Amino acid sequence: MPADIIAAQKIFSIFNRSRPMGRDFFDVVFLLGKSAVNFDYLDQKMSIRNKKELRDRLLLRSAQLDFSRLAKDLEPFVYSKKEVDRVFMVPEFIQQAI
Questions:
Q1: N or C: which end of the chain has fewer CB atoms below 10 A?
Q2: pLDDT in tens, 24-50
Q3: Can you say how many angstroms the Cα of residue 91 is from the centroid of all Cα atoms in its chain?
Q4: Could you tell me the pTM of the whole model?
Q5: Which strand (E) or helix (H) includes residue 22?
Q6: Is the model's pLDDT at 83 over the cut of 90?
Q7: CA proximity to 59, closest of 17, 11, 7, 6
Q8: What count of Cα atoms within 13 Å lies in the side-chain half-sphere of residue 41?
Q9: What's the number of domains the chain is made of?
């Protein structure tokens, strides 16, 4: 599956899981470092058509979440604390990279 579709699916997961998961945020940051987002997918699933809409929605979602809990949730999936700490930088990444 193309990386832009996987990134869009992970973004969809951030908004639609019953319980937020740190690995979704970790994966989105990783994938957006490698690929663009497929806005056709996001438009179809979430009516997000461009980077500004994506940034605004992700920032609103991020403001609702406890990133300490998301970081704890991520610990079993990564090898180092440095990788876990990246979760705390997600809002800054959204502001700068999207």
A1: N
A2: 999 999 999 899 999 999 999 999 999
A3: 10
A4: 0.88
A5: helix 22-34
A6: no
A7: 11
A8: 15
A9: 1
